[in-house]
Write a structure and sequence with these properties.
The structure is a single chain. Helices cover 51% and strands 12% of the residues. It has 16 helices and ten strands. The strands form three sheets. Strands 3-4-5-6-7 form a five-stranded mixed β-sheet, with helices on both faces. Strands 8-10-9 form a three-stranded antiparallel β-sheet. A hairpin with a 4-residue loop joins strand 1 and strand 2. Helix 5 runs parallel beside helix 9.
């Protein structure tokens, strides 16, 4: 099963209940379900899910209606798992940096960082498996072509500060295997630093680690971007920087794919981040988006607003705002991060609990706590 599947599947022939360990709700609380004694609540909850589906069929709901109900419930569970014990962006960044010398904690914090970046990330771990995966739930393009992708996550800690991860510890062959086994397009290896600096222009002076990654990338030369496979080495401090930059520079899974496609070494990643810092931050149409959502909720009480409906209303409004579903989803998720008590941004829908003016006040208060561009540069330079 994958992160896309539901919590449980019941095999009627074998009478076996299969629980999806990769579902974000299960993965988030996996530490509570490690042994048989503690797993009983999860088993009962999973069986209740199966019985709910069975009951809906017995009440003669259509299959379309049942799928809609179960999908909505599943999205709520995913959202609750992500928002449980929610930390601020700066807290996640600092906790990630503090975990650099603790392998177990680093795996947890890398997954938390990718969740903060808008992915559906879960921790996996164990022999022959990546430390986690991060799924980008992007809708199709204007031609209906899928844009969804998955990233395999690998965390590499050191026992003391100032030490680089050894090339043999990275194990490019193992990362490729994890990436393929879990049907990922991209792989990201996160550690304090890597032996990847090129001291000269000669091919012989290119570090072995980069040669191996280049060899893997060469297999996909000439392929469309959505068919390429990549590996990116990233320093912990740079991942922390991305987490901090995300709300300010409109960084989400759609934009971050550019990083995975272009960047190989930590130096590439640092340069990409520096270029993002230089970009002029576009003013976000929070007010207009909130106004449309609130208007739709007033017109249809107790109903969440679909991103597709939001897109059309904004496009036809005055002024006309042209954003695709993925861009709107990422903007709504940013607002949900800034005002979690008032905005609920799910996979396909968004909902407001209070009027837009109250939410804008909460967003402004939250944004006042974020550093300016100049402060960001100083903060990242210190890291």
């Amino acid at each position: 099963m994958s992160t896309e599947d539901g919590i449980a599947v019941y095999d009627t022939e074998s009478a076996v209940l299969k629980i999806n360990a990769l579902h974000p709700f299960v993965a988030t609380f996996s530490a509570d379900f490690q042994n048989f004694e503690h797993s009983l609540p999860l088993e009962l909850f999973s069986m209740a899910e199966i019985l709910l589906e069975s009951e809906l069929f017995s009440l003669e709901f259509s299959e379309t209606e049942i799928n809609s109900i179960l999908d909505e419930r599943d999205q709520v569970l995913r959202y609750l798992a992500k928002s449980s014990g929610q930390r601020s962006t700066l807290m996640v960044a600092e906790d990630l940096r503090s975990a650099r010398n603790d392998q177990n904690l680093l795996e947890v914090e890398v997954v938390a960082a990718f969740n903060k970046l808008g992915f559906d990330a879960v921790r996996i771990g164990g022999a022959g498996k990546p430390d986690g995966t991060a799924t980008a739930h992007l809708s199709g393009d204007i031609h209906g072509k899928a844009r969804r992708y998955i990233v395999s996550l690998e965390a590499k800690s050191t026992t003391r500060d100032g030490k680089k991860i050894a090339a043999q510890t990275v194990s490019i062959a193992g990362i490729i295997r994890h990436r393929e086994d879990f049907q990922c397009r991209h792989a990201v290896v996160v550690g304090p630093d890597f032996p990847t600096r090129q001291m000269g222009k000669s091919h012989d002076k290119i570090p072995a680690l980069i040669k191996e990654i280049n060899s893997d990338r060469d297999k996909y030369k000439g392929s469309p971007d959505d068919e390429k496979r990549t590996i990116t080495l990233m320093k912990i401090n740079d991942l922390a920087a991305l987490v901090v930059l995300a709300p300010l520079k409109h960084l989400g899974p759609s934009r971050l794919r550019e990083l995975f496609l272009k960047c190989i070494s930590p130096q590439d990643v640092s340069e990409w981040i520096n270029n993002i810092l230089k970009e002029k931050t576009e003013k976000r149409p929070y007010k207009e988006i909130l106004k449309v959502i609130w208007g739709e909720q007033q017109a249809t009480p107790n109903a969440r607003v679909e991103y597709g409906v939001l897109r059309v209303k904004l496009r036809d409004g005055s002024p006309s705002i042209k954003k695709d579903n993925n861009e709107l989803k990422e903007l709504c998720r940013v607002m949900a991060n800034l005002a979690p008590a008032y905005v609920t941004a799910l996979e396909n829908t968004v909902e407001l609990d209070v009027n837009p003016s109250k939410i804008l006040e909460a967003i402004n208060v939250a944004m006042d706590q974020y550093p300016t561009d100049d402060h960001l540069r100083k903060l990242l330079a210190r890291w």
